[in-house]
């Protein structure tokens, strides 16, 4: 019975949270219930502590009912204990002590599932269609590789993610910071500024929607603060790249609020005259392992942007990701960006838990957004 | 935020926040419409490529940029000399001189004491791709200890395609060698671009798209679904691996304009150029800041004196 109550509370919490998360996901709320993403236990703790009047108004129930719900939520000892335990474990993981890490590693699948459902957080791409097929966005704790032809919008997506990771928690974001590693020199400051300013506008829009205190919120975020929270590295050779990735762990332990590491692009310096391909494979493998470990230990998302190359296979030229087959085993998720007619599409090529699916997106002056023609279509319907 | 790098003894990579990075400087082309289209001109600190068929004005672009870089920043320049690596002979000295004297007469207050803007353009011929890679150390030392009047901050390579198109076979080993050279050269150029805050402008030729079946040259790169010039479907030469090496890619397209007297057909060469309209399209442009940019195009009739755009139709091409 207790389990039944908890499920109801969870559902309602989630319902509330998805209301809080904003308006553009409204039609897909039914699907999103299945993901169980950021709601979960931490939100429950939040729920128990604070806004019962908001809960009442949002769920359209009486104040008394809401209070009762909250009582159930807070008195549900085992549930709270579990959430606390997971939170503690999470903090231990963040402490980066290898001993703790080994101890924590002894989890059973049930724990892992709970942890994943409750704490696996996602970084929105600002394109609702893309978020939907990704189950809410780019997931933390995992390495995601994104590739496509030049000009498809890899760098734009990278900048967008570096900005979106900072979305405050009251908007359903992580409130973290970003590390942006530029190996190609394509990061343009004015472009980042433009995307950051559009993002600030969107946040204040959210706030207005929620009838929050506009003054207080606007005081918090500004375009330049958004840029201030992106740590930017420019890399000119592959030795620098390896050195930087070795140094990242230390850097992140000093900057614990870093929630995403973006490398744009991982391939460039490894494509210049490596005569010894076996050496290259080894170096790349080591680098990938480090990044996977970093993602797990520090609970952050690693996004690798990759170039594509043509490969001669079975009598015809085909596009494939650069750096070879061995590299393709290193990344947990892989997203391919491609042109379909005049629209840009993203396709999930490889993922352990997501269905492969494609979604259109567009690159606008405000950043990555839903595809324009797609919007029109949904408006017509 | 920058306290971390305060310890100079540690060789840790220094990070920046974009707030601290200055927006990249731009070098104006001297045409308000083109500059506006590109957010101020050709950006520093990255490689910009111009793709066009012959006779579209690539070289004009390069010559003009290398001259205008000498203007002070308030006139859109960089107060810098330029290094011009040319691969197609002969170098158009007369044209450079023409443009130079036009610039001189346009800004007499800048070019005082009979200073000729040509003096700020350093020429070097390059014959093969390997030679280009070989002279990179020389280029580096030239950039480092330039004894020139103005520091060198522009490198033009006109054209990249000419170096690579003749020499390499279509065999696997040659293609691998070629793409490895691409990455080496562009790695070097990008390093220089960052260290010395350079504008790097390279030109590329085009090839016709022959079959509409699936071929390597069918891969779409950039904002345009199909690139057309002189009524033919074309695609940039040097393929996908080179496309990965550049930061921005511009496309110059031209079309013969059918005038009322088109039946007359055979006019003199100079007259027929008046009937050519050229426009610029941004294929890949990471710093694009304008909403209209993805398909934004504008025309640049190449006149005898200088590139100047005549913009008579909104957002589209127009005549000279």
From TrEMBL, chain A:
Organism: Salix udensis
One GO term describing the cellular component: Rad51C-XRCC3 complex
PANTHER family the record matches: DNA REPAIR PROTEIN RAD51 HOMOLOG 3, DNA REPAIR PROTEIN RAD51 HOMOLOG 3 RAD51C
Protein name as it appears in the record: DNA repair protein RAD51 homolog 3
Job of this protein: Involved in the homologous recombination repair (HRR) pathway of double-stranded DNA breaks arising during DNA replication or induced by DNA-damaging agents.
GO biological process: meiotic DNA recombinase assembly; reciprocal meiotic recombination
Domain RecA family profile: 119-308
Any Pfam family: Rad51
Family: Belongs to the RecA family. RAD51 subfamily.
GO MF entries: ATP binding; ATP-dependent DNA damage sensor activity; crossover junction DNA endonuclease activity; four-way junction DNA binding
Keywords from the UniProt entry: ATP-binding, DNA damage, DNA recombination, DNA repair, DNA-binding, Nucleotide-binding, Nucleus
Domain of life according to the entry: Eukaryota
Location of the protein in the cell: Nucleus
Automatic annotation (TrEMBL), chain B:
Annotated region (Disordered), positions in chain: 290-320
Gene Ontology MF annotations: ATP binding; ATP-dependent DNA damage sensor activity; four-way junction DNA binding
Pfam family, one: Rad51
Keywords: ATP-binding, DNA damage, DNA repair, Nucleotide-binding, Nucleus
Main localization of the protein described in the UniProt heading: nucleus
Subcellular location: Nucleus
One Gene Ontology term from the biological process aspect of the record: t-circle formation
Taxonomy, superkingdom: Eukaryota
Matching PROSITE patterns: RECA_2
Record protein name field: RecA family profile 1 domain-containing protein
Organism: Salix udensis
Top-level taxonomy: Eukaryota, Viridiplantae, Streptophyta, Embryophyta, Tracheophyta
